[in-house]
Design goal:
With 625 residues, the chain is an alpha/beta fold. It has 18 helices and 26 strands. The strands form six sheets. Strands 16-15-14-13-10-9-18-17 form an eight-stranded parallel beta sheet. Strand 20 (555-561) and strand 21 form a beta hairpin. It is globular, with a radius of gyration of 26 Å. Residues 141-535 form the Glycosyl hydrolase family 13 catalytic domain. It holds the Pfam family Alpha-amylase. Residues 1-22 form the signal peptide.
């Protein structure tokens, strides 16, 4: 999620001030009448590596109760804790490795006596659970609401605050859902895609502009307009059966202002507070500026992202535990493969280290990459595992980040009279990372103008971008619709979040099929599919080493190679005219090879001494002995 158009977003979503007086939904009214409205986590598992479990109990006047745990082998209650609100209690448990699955019997004795059975489940096993993502993957990034509507029955949920579908409005719900994504698994696989990244699927019960998913209102519920919790769990299973991994998009820094924890706050320090509404300064440099002020640091870390997005106080250890447990819960419940972390640098630095460690301790194979939309390679590397010394106790343990530096570079390279040297420069800074191949490379996303529009709707230049995306180091990510030339500019953002044509039964055309694409769209799609499936079948483009040569005459050349002799040469001509290139300059990588196969055309290349490269063209050659 990015910063632009915040004032517009505030007007659309409404301000935080009137939230407390909003009329309750029928579900909220029912909860208010219950002695215990909910317990988070909603259930847990035996056999977790960390034996400690913190239960947040919510119910009217529940703090007046004394808590008792009936004898249960292997489980002990370490005590309970009252918070400032009379409607919350914390119950702390230790679950030993010997404990078996079953129901814990909790009793709450206060003004009224309440009993509650809390479920402990057995952990699931299976080699396809929590597989992680890595440089062997090809990610397809989509917005569920805008991709495909597989189940019209969940379009309107009467208990939600926004109860309309309006596909002609860029900020309203359009009806896309999990079932719609699932119905197009074959489409994704035809491009060589191996991982799906939807924008957040958790509940966003906001009155307006809730379609994007970044203002969560319930940590433990899938948004019912996408499906149920169980349907999401099945979605992950079905994806795995189809050879597709699932990336769960998460927000740590803030929640939506209609989150129950904000409407009825457990304590005053559950959220970061200011005398009056105060925004973040959106400048991560405050975190590691050796000359920086405390005020700038506080504004960055504790200021709110927007009026409807309360900033969570992660320096409160109770809050930190609540959040950590939630994301352990989603992993164990669904078996999903990776987390993408929105607005990563905005969170409390010490919390970030604790959150990453807790998840990786339990699931060492878990994939994790964060959004660090910053202005330099050094600042970007600061938020990933790197070679730097700690700064104020912060030493990032996040495996990878979204590579905004190479994204900016590919835009510069593909624009008219662009400069491909920027691509070389973007990778030259990889020495700062422990492993830059864990970074996710991309050309556009839901927060920025679509690359096809940015480069003047030039298909030759876009194809050159596809070639770079699918052959450079790291984990490639394609934004939905880029492969069929979806276009527009992000002012406002909704324009780059259009529906995928064919995702709705009444659509005039279906671009999921060749018959529904224009000749140009089909040319772009075929190009992505050719390279995507080639990449999937050739590990040298996934895990091979990379050697790049300083660009000359606005031509960028690099090689992917491995110890088994597999080598792919990539050459990008950023000029609008044909250029002759003397290949003897690349003898370091060409020696020992006598020919090549053009990956895109299938033609055999017998001369490795010189080549003529057409303007705005990428050559992708598989070298032959």
């Amino acid at each position: 999620m990015k910063i632009p158009h915040l004032l517009l977003a505030a007007l659309l979503c409404g301000s935080a001030a009137p939230v407390a007086t909003a009329a309750p939904t029928p579900v909220e009214a029912a909860k208010k009448a219950a002695p215990i409205a909910r317990i988070d986590p909603t259930f847990w598992w035996v056999g977790m590596k960390n034996p400690k479990l913190q239960l947040l109990v919510h119910g009217p006047g529940i703090a007046d109760s004394k808590v008792n745990l009936a004898a249960y082998p292997g489980v002990t209650m370490d005590g309970f804790q009252r918070l400032e609100s009379p409607n919350y209690l914390l119950v702390n448990l230790t679950i030993s490795p010997e404990a078996k699955s079953g129901k814990l019997k909790l009793s709450f004795d206060g003004k009224s006596k309440t009993k509650y059975e809390y479920e402990l489940r057995a952990r699931e096993t299976g080699k396809d659970r929590v597989q992680g993502v890595n440089s062997s993957d090809f990610i397809y990034f989509l917005m569920p609401d805008r991709f495909a509507n597989g189940d019209p029955k969940n379009d309107i949920i009467k208990t939600e605050r926004a109860r309309t579908i309006a596909r002609d409005s860029m900020y309203a719900r359009h009806g896309g859902d999990l079932k719609g994504i699932e119905q197009h698994f074959d489409y994704l696989k035809s491009m060589g895609v191996t991982a799906i990244w939807p924008t957040p699927v958790v509940e966003n019960d906001m009155p307006k502009a809730s379609y994007h998913g970044y203002a969560l209102t319930d940590y433990y519920q899938v948004d019912p307009r996408y499906g149920t919790n169980e349907e999401y769990r099945q979605f992950v299973r079905n994806a795995h059966q189809n050879g597709l991994k699932v990336i769960h998009d998460v927000v740590l820094n803030h929640v939506g202002s209609y989150n129950y924890l904000f409407l009825d706050q457990p304590a005053k320090d559950w959220f970061n507070r200011w005398p009056s509404f105060t925004r973040s300064n959106y400048n991560s440099q405050a975190l590691n500026d050796p000359y920086g002020s405390k005020r700038d640091l506080d504004l960055y870390n504790r200021g709110w992202f927007d009026t409807t997005m309360p900033d969570v106080n992660q320096s409160n250890p109770l809050v930190a535990t609540y959040i950590i447990q939630n994301f352990l819960w989603w992993l164990e419940y669904t078996g999903l493969d990776s987390y993408r972390i929105d607005t990563y640098p905005y969170s409390d630095p010490q919390f970030l280290m604790a959150w990453n460690k807790a998840l990786l301790d339990e699931y060492p194979q878990l994939g994790m990459f964060g959004e660090a939309w910053v202005g330099s390679t050094a600042q970007q590397a600061f938020f990933a595992q790197n070679i730097f010394e700690p700064v104020d106790g912060f030493k990032s343990n996040l495996p990878g980040v979204l590579d905004f530096q190479s994204q900016g570079a590919i835009w510069d390279a593909l624009k008219e009279k662009g400069n491909v040297t920027k691509l070389y420069d973007a990778l030259q800074g990889d020495w700062m990372y422990q492993d830059a191949t864990r970074n996710v490379v991309f050309m556009d996303n839901h927060d920025m103008s679509r690359v096809y529009s940015v480069i003047g709707e030039s298909l030759p230049r876009l194809k050159m971008g596809f070639a770079w995306l699918l052959t450079t180091r790291g984990i490639p990510q394609l934004y939905y619709g880029t492969e069929i030339l979806m276009k527009n500019f992000s002012n406002p953002d909704g324009l780059v979040r259009s529906d995928f044509p064919g995702g709705w039964k009444k659509d005039k055309r279906n671009a999921f099929t060749q018959a529904g694409r224009t000749p140009q769209e089909q040319e772009a799609f075929a190009y992505v599919s050719k390279l995507g499936t080639y990449r999937k079948a050739h590990p040298v483009l996934q895990t091979g080493k990379l050697m790049q040569f300083i660009p000359q005459d606005n031509i960028y050349t690099y090689f992917r190679y491995d110890d088994q002799g597999n080598t792919v040469m990539v050459m990008l001509n950023g000029n609008d005219s044909e250029k002759s290139v003397d290949l003897t300059r690349f003898a370091e990588r060409l020696n020992g090879y006598s020919a090549a196969s053009d990956v895109l055309s299938g033609a055999t290349v017998s001369d490795l001494k010189a080549v003529k490269v057409p303007g705005y063209t990428a050559l992708v050659w598989e070298l032959k002995k």
